[in-house]
Amino acid sequence: MQTAINLNQNQFDVLSNMLKGASDEVKLKLISFLSDSLLKKPEEKKEKWADQFAGAWKDNRSAEEIIADIRNARTSNREIEL
Predict the structure, then answer these.
(1) What burial letters (b/e) apply to 9-31, b meaning 16+ CB within 10 Å?
(2) How far apart are CA 15 and CA 25, in angstroms?
(3) What integer pLDDT is reported at residue 64 of this predicted model?
(4) What is the pLDDT of residue 65?
(5) Can you give the C-alpha Rg of the chain in angstroms?
(6) What is the distance between the alpha carbons of residues 37 and 11, in angstroms, rounded to a whole number?
(7) What DSSP string runs through 18-78?
(8) Tens of pLDDT along 19-63?
(9) What angle do CA 47, 50, 55 make, to 5 degrees?
(10) C-alpha span between 24 and 78 (Å, rounded)
(11) Which distant-in-sequence residues (6+ apart) come within 8 Å of 68 by Cβ?
């Protein structure tokens, strides 16, 4: 349990140092974001997570062309010369 407490304190210290120079406006936006994230129900969080990816992939290639490109890009752990 002591390790978890130390880790949390370290995370807090890092965040505190990052926010020292931030403006009041940025800090208030962060507070609002954190509050909203805590108040959302777990199922709402899951839906939001998935929604951010909806429609994100835009490509003119067919599925077969995309699959071929992915397979051709595989390296099989061999050394590649640049």
Answers:
(1) eeeeeeeeeeeeeeeeeeeeeee
(2) 16
(3) 92
(4) 92
(5) 22
(6) 18
(7) HHTT--HHHHHHHHHHHHHHHHS-HHHHHHHHHHTTTT----SS-HHHHHHHHHHH--TT-
(8) 888 899 999 999 999 898 888 776 666 666 667 777 767 788 988
(9) 125
(10) 51
(11) none
The pLDDT of residue 24: 92
Give the DSSP H or E segment for 7: helix 2-19
Question: What's at 15, amino acid-wise?
Answer: L
Tokens of 66: 């995309």
In this prediction, residue 7 carries a pLDDT of: 60
